[in-house]
Amino acid sequence: MYTVQGKIDQRAMIEQYMPMVRRHALSLQVRLPASVELDDLIQAGMVGLLDAMGRYDNAHGASFSTYANQRIRGAMIDELRSRDWMPRSVRRNARALDQAIGRLEQRLGRTPEEREIAQEMGISQSDYHQLLTDANNGFLLAYDESDSENGVGAVSEGGPPSPFEALLDGDNRERLMAAIDALPEREKLLLGLYYQEELNLKEIGAVLGVSESRVCQLHSQAVARLRGRLVN
């Protein structure tokens, strides 16, 4: 939208793209601790939108919608990174989870069960489930961050890459597919519903017959299984 002078009409553009900003904010908020306010994400996204308006050049070939989409999400991720919102203990526990699953994979020659992973880590199953919930937020945001360069996400309007796409380069794709095939059927189905069918957590929970929080735990466990198998 342009004025008669050929300049972008900022007010009209903000009104048009505000739903996009809110959609990105809501998408990120469900993956983050309750301490992260929706309004803060929206404010960061608005900064990204304004930046897109100032920098956009249609000579580069991308549509403004695609360019704004990248800038909005990138600005939100930059805001989260600047806060260092993920506690070091959660990062440490996520690494310990990957390592525990990797050890069990090698020792047992099969996919370990939840109780076996909890036992390997020396914690109760209740504590293990909490660890999965905490780690899930870090897994998801980490893949969004991996698509960001200098605050500009390289995501398309289709969204960020799946975790298994972000884990590997093309040379290791066969190993990746083998690791996915080795996942328990429910976790394999969950990844397909989330990253291919693009269902939300509530919808996936309805399909699997579990709560949204359990979907988060299963997602975290599935990604940890992939990481545990692929980095060892």
Describe the structure.
The protein has 2 domains: 74 residues, RNA polymerase sigma factor, region 2, helix turn helix motif (Rna Polymerase Sigma Factor, Chain: A), CATH 1.10.1740; 143 residues, Butyryl-CoA Dehydrogenase, subunit A, domain 3, CATH 1.20.140. It contains 11 helices and 2 strands. It has a two-stranded antiparallel sheet. The N terminus is likely disordered. Sigma factors are initiation factors that promote the attachment of RNA polymerase to specific initiation sites and are then released. This sigma factor controls the expression of flagella-related genes. Belongs to the sigma-70 factor family. FliA subfamily. This is RNA polymerase sigma factor FliA.
What strand line-up does the widest sheet have?
1-2
C-alpha-based Rg, rounded: 20 Å
Summed up, the domain count is 2
Mean pLDDT: 78
Largest sheet: 2 strands, antiparallel
- Beta-strand segment tally: 2
CATH-defined fold name of the largest domain:
Butyryl-CoA Dehydrogenase, subunit A, domain 3
Percent range for helical residues? 55-70%
* Poorly predicted runs: 1-6, 142-162
Please state the overall shape, judged from the principal axes of the Cα atoms.
Answer: elongated
Query: What would you call the structural class?
Result: mainly alpha
End-to-end C-alpha gap = 52 Å
Would you identify the CATH architecture of the largest domain? Up-down Bundle
- Topology as H/E string? HHHHHHEEHHHHH
CATH class of the largest domain: Mainly Alpha
Taken as a percent bin, the fraction of beta residues is: under 5%
The helix tally amounts to: 11
